[in-house]
Specification:
The structure is a homodimer. Chain A has a three-stranded antiparallel β-sheet. In chain A, α4 runs parallel beside α9, α5 crosses α7 and α5 packs antiparallel against α11. With about 240 residues, chain A is mostly helical. In chain A, about 45% of the residues are buried. Chains A and B meet through α3, α5 and α8 of A and α3, α5 and α8 of B. The structure holds a DNA duplex (30 and 30 nucleotides). Chains A, B: Pfam families: FCD, GntR. Chains A, B: Keywords: DNA-binding, Transcription, Transcription regulation.
DNA sequence: CCTCCTCGAAAGGTACTATCTTTGCTCGGA
DNA sequence: TCCGAGCAAAGATAGTACCTTTCGAGGAGG
């Protein structure tokens, strides 16, 4: 699961999907633009069937619509399945990283506090001890300014909290959060050294979860994300 | 957009996708079960290419994994793209409506208050007046116990609030919320007559949004969803 | 008991046919 | 002369049949 857990495509049609998906989400192919299977097949050197399968997947993400005689038209952004992990990944890699990061951060602010509260109520003993362990690691790595290692531990921290609550919708967002955190690090939106308050808050969340204090966990996570918001939304 | 806004499939492979997707999400085809393209083609009377396209879409939802020589294996539930509108719809129509409604309601509790606050900050004039209009309609329809009409207005109310904030991730959840509300009504989880408190809270949310009082809107929406929670989670 | 080879089954990929829809041209009427 | 309706042709997708590649399993031999 190297990148946001999207399924590993081993086939020949994967590069087609990847390239065109990226081009659409980046805005390079604007809404209303028309593609043809022949054009795709010729461009990538594949048969029409391969192109068709790729388009079928894109259609299932509501990125394009296929109509007879007309061709394959790119749909407007409002209709995209923006929760599809591939779409999120493409947009984070592409040109509108900014809007995407803003939206996702707002989503995190909404979800993660409640997920932390759920985790405080429902986590297993192993999960409780692991979350404390991770918070300790985070402090150590943060103070040593090991940014990459810090990020990996941070991803595991948030993933664990999203999964421990037992809500599968929250759990499904863990890939999204992982993408956001990796994106922020790659984009240089992380401070060179994590601010001490953030480290304190990670520990506060961990302790509250470990002790089963749901309200405290929720509150600490909310404060933590307020910190994140100021980093991502400089406005 | 009769059902959760999933793209209208006009092709021949759509019934295949629909049937097998439903069977997997319902648990009728358990994780690890192996399908073959030939089997699918024979069962539905279609060619293998059609079956393959349907499987490609299912694969893009992480419901199955296709490996050579082995066949198409059903993946465990934890790996599904549970945010895909089709998956949500299938699960709501199928046997684990209950777990799905619980998860989705928790998600609503997380997201909708913040979305209401965003709407209070960023809605257009037309949206502000429309939301008040809808709250008034809701009171009238609720007191008249017109359940279906009430639901439709309720869907529009929540959809409007999710979209007005300008956050595309929130906006993308409007189909989900629509599905939940419709599912609750069809499932008989709505009271025969909406409780007066709910009507009051809808109006409170609307007024706060119209007046631009973000904190009040958030608070009222939170109370409204607390009401919903008690209805859905009888525990 | 381990290793290697062979066989076969199922997915991957290609070429071809059918069908449907759009578009443009023509003919007739006002 | 202009406008509208209808018909025909073209082109692109939908679907089918067939060949190729790959990898897993089972058996034989060391």
């Amino acid at each position: 699961m190297s990148d946001s857990g999207r399924p590993i495509g081993t086939g020949l049609h994967d590069p087609v999907l990847e390239t065109i998906g990226m081009e659409i989400t980046c805005g390079e192919l604007p809404a209303g633009h028309v593609l043809t299977l022949d054009g795709i097949g010729e461009r990538f050197g594949v048969s029409r069937t391969v192109a068709r399968e790729a388009m079928r997947v894109l259609e299932s993400m509501c990125l394009v619509q296929s109509r007879r005689r007309v061709g394959i038209t790119v749909r407007p952004r409002e209709e995209w399945n923006v929760f599809d992990p591939r779409v999120i990944w493409w947009r984070l890699s592409g040109s509108d990283r900014d809007a995407q990061l803003r939206s996702l951060t707002e989503l995190r602010i909404a979800v993660e506090p409640l997920a932390a509260a759920s985790a405080a109520r429902g986590a297993s003993a192993a999960e409780r001890s692991r979350v404390v362990e991770l918070a300790t690691s985070l402090r150590k790595l943060g103070e040593a300014a090991e940014l990459t290692e810090f990020m990996e531990a941070d991803v595991e921290f948030h993933t664990l909290l999203l999964r421990a609550g037992g809500n599968e919708m929250f759990a499904a967002l863990s890939n999204v959060v992982g993408s956001v955190l990796r994106g922020r690090t790659q984009l240089g939106l992380m401070p060179h050294q994590p601010v001490p308050e953030a480290l304190d808050l990670h520990e506060a969340v961990a302790e509250a979860v470990a002790a089963g204090r749901a309200a405290d966990a929720e509150d600490a996570m909310r404060k933590l994300l307020a910190e994140v918001r100021t980093a991502v939304l400089p406005s």
